[in-house]
UniProtKB/TrEMBL annotation:
Gene3D superfamilies: Immunoglobulins (2.60.40.10). This is Colony stimulating factor 2 receptor subunit alpha. The gene is LOC112651927. GO terms for cellular component: external side of plasma membrane. Keywords: Glycoprotein, Membrane, Receptor, Signal, Transmembrane, Transmembrane helix. SUPFAM superfamilies: Fibronectin type III. Residues 176-276 form the Fibronectin type-III domain. One of its GO terms (molecular function) is cytokine receptor activity. Transmembrane segments: none annotated. The keyword tRNA-binding does not apply. It is found in: Membrane. The keyword Glycoprotein applies. InterPro entries: FN3_dom, FN3_sf, Ig-like_fold, IL3Ra_N, Short_hematopoietin_rcpt_2_CS, TypeI_recpt_CBD. It is a single-pass type I membrane protein.
Length: 295
């Protein structure tokens, strides 16, 4: 975002200020005789105020510019959210504004903040003909930070826009871990797995996992245990389970280590004591006849 002004006088002090309702004042110092300033990207749908503070040779010259979200109040898209799943897909959804007219139509535009590439939603989701969501199958243009803009049109009134800046790491829902395996000995079962495929390559320590271990009895689940494990290069958990052990299942799901947002569960993996390792001791109980004398 660039703010510019006419500057015909020599100046001794220059400062640009953007007063944002969430971030507060954002100040940028300038060199002498500069007549413009650039601000980082911020959401603007709630309106912002720009100020230019200039001290000239003769007098101080403050100027203020109020940037408003034009259109009918309550017409903008609401309840906007996005999430990335399976590493390569993203869904965004929103709801129709409470005061939006019946003929409103919304459009989503996405711009990555690194290369400034912009695109419109390729596949809209509709409710009674109104766009209320977007599905993307190609995320190659997304950077770490991206700017999302939902604007609208209507024949009856102006439609306010909604915008947001989202960080991909905060909106990605991780898939279950890969290659889950269980290896047992007489006293323990070692559960191992590999980190899931994600949008960007992450270290093992950026994940945490939740294991759901359940004992199966008569085809019903009982005695389940939920265990959280921090990610590391081994990704393993040693489960105490002495032989002979009944059939158990384990399933695992993944979350970011700092932002707890669990993904879906993996398919359950079964483990038990193999039949050939199970041993049974039989006892023969005989009742002695009291009328037979002992030798």
């Amino acid at each position: 975002m660039e703010l510019s002004w006419d500057c015909k006088e020599n100046t001794t002090y220059l400062e640009c200020v953007m007063i944002h309702k969430e971030k507060g004042p954002i100040e940028i110092m300038l060199k002498e005789n500069e007549c413009h300033c650039k601000f980082p990207d911020y959401s603007l749908h709630e309106g912002v105020t720009f100020m230019v503070k200039v001290n000239s040779i003769q007098r101080p010259i403050p100027e203020t510019l109020v940037y408003t979200n034009s259109g009918g109040k309550g017409t903008a898209a609401q309840n906007f959210s996005c999430f990335i799943y399976n590493a390569n897909f993203m869904n965004c959804t929103w709801a129709k504004g409470q005061a939006a007219p019946d003929d409103v139509q919304y459009f989503l535009y996405i711009r990555d903040l690194k290369y400034r590439r912009e695109r419109e939603c390729p596949h809209y989701l509709e409710d009674s003909g109104t766009h209320v969501g977007c599905h993307l199958e190609d995320l190659s243009g997304l950077a770490y930070y991206n700017y999302f803009l939902v604007n609208g049109t209507s024949q009856r009134t102006g439609i306010q826009f909604f915008d947001s800046i989202l960080y991909w790491k905060k909106i990605e829902i991780y898939s279950p871990p890969n290659n889950i395996s269980v290896h047992c000995n007489v006293s323990h079962c070692l559960i191992q797995w590999e980190k899931p495929v994600t949008r960007h390559n992450l270290s093992n320590r950026e994940f945490k996992y939740q294991l759901d271990i359940q004992r199966l009895k008569n085809k019903e689940h009982s005695g389940n245990q939920l265990i959280e494990v921090s990610g590391n290069w081994e990704n393993k958990y040693n489960f105490p389970s002495p032989e002979p052990r009944a059939k158990h299942t384990v399933k695992i799901r993944t979350s970011d280590a700092r932002i707890q947002r669990w993904g879906s569960w993996s398919q359950p993996v079964e483990f038990e004591t193999p039949a050939k390792h199970q041993s049974w001791v039989s006892f023969l109980l005989m009742k002695r006849n009291p009328f037979i004398p002992r030798n």
